[in-house]
Amino acid sequence: MNIARSFNNWRKYRQTVAELGRMSTRELNDLGIGRGDIHNIARGAVVR
Fold first, then answer.
1. Which positions fall inside the YjiS-like domain (predicted)?
2. How far is the CA of 31 from the CAs of 7, 37, 46, in angstroms?
3. Which of 3, 25, 31, 35 is the most exposed place for a label (fewest CB within 10 A)?
């Protein structure tokens, strides 16, 4: 994996964590996401 791709993956991960982190617990629950699942979901977003 090259440096540019690694950096883009890191940015995508951080952006996903930040966006989900700004949501209320109720909004996350509506999506079927627990607050403790945010990092796992962000990791999954990078893989796609």
1. 3-39
2. 28, 12, 19
3. 3
- Of the candidates 6, 39, 7, the one whose C-alpha atom is nearest the C-alpha of residue 20 is 39
Angle between helices 38-47 and 3-22 (to 10 degrees): 140
Block residue for tokens 């999506």 = 31
Q: Collect the ranges in the chain with pLDDT lower than 70.
A: 1, 48
pTM comes to 0.85
The C-alpha atoms of residue 34 and residue 30 are separated, in whole angstroms, by 10
Which of 32, 39, 36, 35 has the alpha carbon at shortest distance from 14?
39
